[in-house]
Request: fold
Amino acid sequence: MSEDQSILICDDEADLAGELGEFFSACGWRTIVHLGAPDALEALHAGAAPTCLLTDLRVGHFSGAELVAATRRLPAHLQPRVYCLMTGHVLDTSEAKDFGVDLLYVKPIDPDMVLNDIQKFLDGA
Reply:
């Protein structure tokens, strides 16, 4: 993984967010971890411009889908190239496109699989 890859992780579960941040850091990614959608959006507005946004569907009182939608309204150079959403809820028929994201995961997630999926997505973009 090249050093210019970065990921912004937004999840209100501090342990999970921290573990994912450590995993991606160990894989050579620059990581930004926020426990709330307002802080994540502020970082994006300030120019974080990560390669990937990985957010929970429910982040405190906010929806990860709302965070994704707000991020997509930013200028193109500030938007992530990959949008990933994770949820702890069973999704019978939902797909990534239903939430406006590229990749959708049901918790518990396998970080290796997420990393591989992101890389495949980037390679195909």
